[in-house]
Amino acid sequence: MGKKGSWFSAVKKVFSHDSRKDKKSKKSKKKSTQKDLEVESEEAQVVVPQIEDVKLSEVENEQNKQAISLAFATAAAAGAAVAAAKAAAEVVRLTSMPHFPAKTKEELAAIKIQTAFRGYLARRALRALRGLVRLKTLVQGQSVKRQADSTLRCMQTLARLQSQVRERRIRMSEENQALQRQLQQKHEKELGKLQASV
Prior knowledge:
Family: Belongs to the IQD family.
GO molecular function, one term: calmodulin binding
Keywords: Calmodulin-binding
Order of helices and strands: HHHHHH
Organism: Trifolium pratense (Red clover)
Number of strands: 0
Helix content: over 70%
InterPro entries: IQ_motif_EF-hand-BS
Distance between the termini: 121 Å
């Protein structure tokens, strides 16, 4: 099928610091490849905006802490995905060189196809992860929180006004019924006086 260890070792090279130091003392070709990997891994680091100088209430601070920790986690995952994609691209580049004289053309072609497909999958996963990070920052953004708070306040005000209007209607209805009873009693008394006088 293909050389499974080469892809894993390339990913391992990107994440391990000790292997970089050991590899620097080897051949010049490996030095240039290692420098390329270091430059690519430095480019792969995701910059997370620092939120300071913001003074909020305790509840908002707790929500911000949760959002920040989530952003750090997703940024770390995005960084890992970037590093994996770069490592897969590096594997594709390294395997494109014919340094396997014992392999047949079919085996080399299979290795190239597998590494290209792995690189494609890594790039697709990275794209999906970036979209997810963008969606989370949009959903958990300050403007969305402010809109939700204002909507909640408006709904509470509307519910309070509706209950006040309902109470006023009930009170007016009760007053109207009491007035009707008084008028009816007065009318009955007048009617009773007229009948008594006749």
